[in-house]
Amino acid sequence: MSDTETPDTAAETSQAPAQATAPENPHAAPVRQLARSMTRASLLFTPPFILVCIVLFTVLNGLHGFLGALVGGVLAMVASLSTLGMMKVSAGQDPSLVMLIALGGYAAKVILLFLALTLLKGVTVLHPLSLGITMIVAILVAAAVEFAAFRKARIPTIIPAAN
């Protein structure tokens, strides 16, 4: 013990690291691994479909189609990636809190998309059909790719206790 340490401070410093490293939920690591896999797949496969929609609607509707498809693609990607972000954040939480985050996040995402689309309704520079079709295509492709990544992942569904 040094001159500046008292028996009380020495005991506190020796216990601090033990308290700081609480055991992590055993389900957290596989869920984070799954979320990374699904994010990677979504970022790899969804943007090309959005790009095809942008090109198609630019050819069909000009600048208005380009801007509508671009905004629709961005909104869809943000919505898709926000779900995966919530999955990463809630990975180590209690199951009831995970359900709260999932359902609350879904409701918040739907409300925010509704508000965004309501605000964009009066914007004449955006072609509404281009925006809507691009959003539908991007969301469906992202969901299908995320599902395929989930099925392909070698992550155990049941993780036995460490006892």
Features:
mainly alpha
Summarize the structure.
Helix content is 78%, strand content 0%. It has four helices and no strands.
Query: Which structural category fits the helices and strands?
Result: mainly alpha
Which percent range describes the beta-strand content? under 5%
Number of helices: 4
Which word captures the global form? elongated
Number of strands: 0
- The succession of helices and strands, N to C, reads HHHH
Query: What is the typical, i.e. mean, pLDDT?
Result: 82
The N- and C-terminal alpha carbons lie at a distance of 37 Å
The major beta sheet can be summarized as:
none
Helix and strand topology:
Layout: H1 7-20, H2 28-89, H3 95-120, H4 128-152
Characterise this structure.
The protein is mainly α. Helices cover 78% and strands 0% of the residues. It has four helices and no strands. The protein has helices at 7-20, 28-89, 95-120, 128-152. Helix 2 runs parallel beside helix 3 (95-120) and helix 2 (28-89) packs antiparallel against helix 4 (128-152). The radius of gyration is 23 Å and the shape is elongated. The mean pLDDT is 82.
